[in-house]
Amino acid sequence: MDSFLSKSAVYKTHNCAQLLHVPAGTPSPSPSNRRITCLKMSCSSVFPTLRTVTISYSELKDTSADLSMKIEQGFGPNGLGILSVTDVPGYSSLRENLLHLAPRLASLPEEVKKDLEDSHSRYNFGWSHGKEKLESGKPDMLKGSFYANPVLDVPTTETYLIERYPSYCGSNIWPDTALPELEVAFKGLGKLILDVGLMVAFHCDHYVSKGMKVHVDEGLEQILLRSQCHKGRLLYYFPPQKSNHMQDGDSMSSWCGWHTDHGSLTGLTCGMFTRDGTVIPCPDSAAGLYIRTRNDQIVKVVFGEDEIAYQIGETTEILSRGFLCATPHCVRAPNGEEASGVERSTFALFMQPDWDEKLNFPKEVHMHRELIPSNGVLTFGEYSEKLLDNYYHLKA
Ligand SMILES: O=C(O)CCC(=O)C(=O)O
Ligand SMILES: [Fe+2]
Predict the structure, then answer these.
(1) Terminal CA-to-CA distance of the chain, rounded, Å?
(2) Residue 239: left (phi > 0), alpha (psi -120 to 50), or beta?
(3) Which segments does the entry list as coiled coil (predicted)?
(4) How remote is the CA of residue 135 from the centroid of ligand 2, in Å?
């Protein structure tokens, strides 16, 4: 296991760190006989730009296909923690329809957005702006989010569950009058990303089961299939203001701070850049999604508009004992004169275990160790509420 988790090799050429990827496909105890190839990339900014590993929808649908190699290249210990799925039928129009609604939602009158807020769930349903803390501890004013469960409007009516796990067991809040199109567009895209995500999960289980014993009920696919608390997030990044550009952390994470998603698997659309709601090419090629690799290299990651990207969350890294690795990421805002007025909209689907799913944490956990009780057992809902305490104000 140790050598399987060995780091990828990095060397420098022309001032540009080249990430060498070590493909395998079978968790191998011996890295020495692996073939080494270099991923396609360009060096348009100080940081190299890497293309995601891709899997086509038809490959993914084939349950007899062995995609272990691609799963390892994307999600394994030497991967970036991201891969993308191409040619998903119906995806492009669902993405465009929903992303166009983000600037419209953000520009609704303040009193209308206030009615879409839900403090009880710590703003994990409906509209959320300026409620999360940045790395600096200041409120995050740079992005607005709209959260909803794309599958269930009312996951439960049990009061004790809603009290215990407010961020998952609450109900959706839709802007029925102000933006009635949002509900259909959000649910349509969210459900499609979930369906494709379940296929990705099937192949992840296949890959992990080559390296460790995975109980039938405890694989990623089954955990996600029985979950009632997947959460979609429509994100709108406000145009960067020169004044708050550098003050909150470094310019790298100027739109969204460094973090790892805490759930199981996150589906992500390619961001759409607009100015006053009209789609534009991004004027700064350095703007967008960045990832920190396993050996602390920072790379810009790109994938096509018509592809759905998937990232591994912390819970999967823990439960798969590191065979699938979560990845720290952030979003960089555009810089320069031409960046004025540039907005970015995107959608993330956080696929995660059910609130009462018991997580058996391994003895040695390298993240959030302080949250895990001595018997190593916590429900996913308990684990998440503890994590939320770090990002929002503590519950009264
Ligand atoms: O905006 C993006 O591309 C990423 C958003 C993200 O990382 C998140 O919502 O967790
Ligand atoms: Fe994220």
Answers:
(1) 43
(2) beta
(3) none
(4) 14
Q: Are strands 377-379 and 358-360 parallel, antiparallel or unpaired?
A: antiparallel
Kindly report the pTM of this predicted structure.
0.87
Name the closest ligand to CA 331: 1
Ligand 1, pocket-test mutation among 234, 289, 310, 384, most atoms within 8 A of CB: 289
pLDDT, tens digit (0-9, with 9 covering 90-100), for 298-355: 999 999 999 999 999 999 998 999 999 998 999 999 998 899 999 999 999 999 999 9
The count of C-alpha atoms lying within 13 angstroms of the C-alpha of 226, restricted to the half-sphere facing its C-beta, is 12
Give the integer Cα–Cα distance in Å for 367 and 315.
10
| Torsion angle of the four alpha carbons 216, 221, 222, 225, in this order, in degrees rounded to the nearest 10 | -160
Nearest CA to ligand 1 atom 8: 348
Of 206, 196, 200, the residue nearest 323 (C-alpha)? 206
- Assess: ipTM above 0.90: yes
Three-state DSSP state, 54: strand
d(CA 194, CA 29) in angstroms, rounded, equals 33
Taking the CA of residue 180 as centre, how many other CA atoms within 13 Å lie in the half-sphere pointing to its CB? 2
Instruction: Please give the number of the atom of ligand 1 that sits closest to the Cα of 271.
Output: 3
**Residue 232 alpha carbon to ligand 2 centre in Å:** 12
Identity at 186, one-letter amino acid code: F
